[in-house]
Amino acid sequence: MTVLGFWLLVGVALAGWIFGLPRRWLLAALAAVWTVIEMAHMAGWGAAFGGSARGWLVAGGLAGLVLAYRAGLARLRSRAVPAPVPVPADPGVTDAELDRYARHLVLREIGGPGQMRLRDARILVVGAGGLGAPVCLYLAAAGVGRITIADDDTVSLSNLQRQVIFRSDQRGQGKAQTAAAAMHALNPHVAVTPVPRRITDADIDLIAQHDLVLDGTDSFAAREAINRACVTARVPLIAGAIAQWEGQVTLYDPARGGPCLACLFPTAPAPGLAPPCAEAGVIGPLPGVVGSMMALEAIKHLTGAGQGLRGRMLIFDGLYGESRMIGTARRPDCPVCGSGLEGRAERS
């Protein structure tokens, strides 16, 4: 009896693994092949695939139960609030840290006090993709004491053109956990907590545990949810965005007089007007440039060095090698931050 159907499924799975297809696409392809085989048996011409309609139906049902069980476990894990990383008693600055941060220590804008502020800081990085990769690496290298990295995606082959924190042999692994391991390997003095799920507007308590949030997500819905949670928690938000050859960075901080995302972009863009990178494309080094700017602004914000981007937006054009700065302002009628914050902002 031929087992063509079995080897067809094996071939599809192997091709998906070789070409680095996202897990959901691979499962969809396998489900489509199984459906074709089952329909062929029901129509009376499935002998070429082997087995029987009942046999294939039972096999598909068992596979579906296994996948549903794994999805349920993943959902339960995603809802769990990560346990806080225990912070050991301060042993003082070690010789290794003095050597590691020597180039910071000689900067008069940072020096010893600024480096200690970085070590005591708590940062939440949302998204470990193109923007999150340089953000994570540079903040870990800079010695930011506690970093939480949140991302629900897994590493795929198409990520590696720009997400330089990952390697080819890490395909299929969770981005949050993989990025956390890379950050710890870069700087063991930094405590990193991976959160393998999305951050939503319900994560106010999680956000309130941090001094600063950096948003590297690539959809308006995700950015809007993070902005709402940060406004409610009164935590500053550094946001970056990229598309094709251009990127932008700004600081949303309505609790201290700056605008929030909804002040500048009150409604979602029309369909097709701001497509994601997967549709519009993006030049590989651009996330590195914009993500590095985000990390730089985070270090400035935490140490008090220079002038930050509250009330300003930096726009970078990689195709023509130009950058420009535009002013931004809070809207009193903003539906997210326009009511109830005036007095609190003045008292901050």
TrEMBL record:
<feature type="domain" description="THIF-type NAD/FAD binding fold">
    <location>
        <begin position="101"/>
        <end position="336"/>
    </location>
</feature>
<dbReference type="InterPro" id="IPR045886">
    <property type="entry name" value="ThiF/MoeB/HesA"/>
</dbReference>
<dbReference type="InterPro" id="IPR000594">
    <property type="entry name" value="ThiF_NAD_FAD-bd"/>
</dbReference>
<keyword id="KW-1133">Transmembrane helix</keyword>
<protein>
    <submittedName>
        <fullName>HesA/MoeB/ThiF family protein</fullName>
    </submittedName>
</protein>
<dbReference type="InterPro" id="IPR035985">
    <property type="entry name" value="Ubiquitin-activating_enz"/>
</dbReference>
<feature type="transmembrane region" description="Helical">
    <location>
        <begin position="55"/>
        <end position="73"/>
    </location>
</feature>
<keyword id="KW-0812">Transmembrane</keyword>
<keyword id="KW-0472">Membrane</keyword>
<dbReference type="Pfam" id="PF00899">
    <property type="entry name" value="ThiF"/>
</dbReference>
<feature type="transmembrane region" description="Helical">
    <location>
        <begin position="25"/>
        <end position="48"/>
    </location>
</feature>
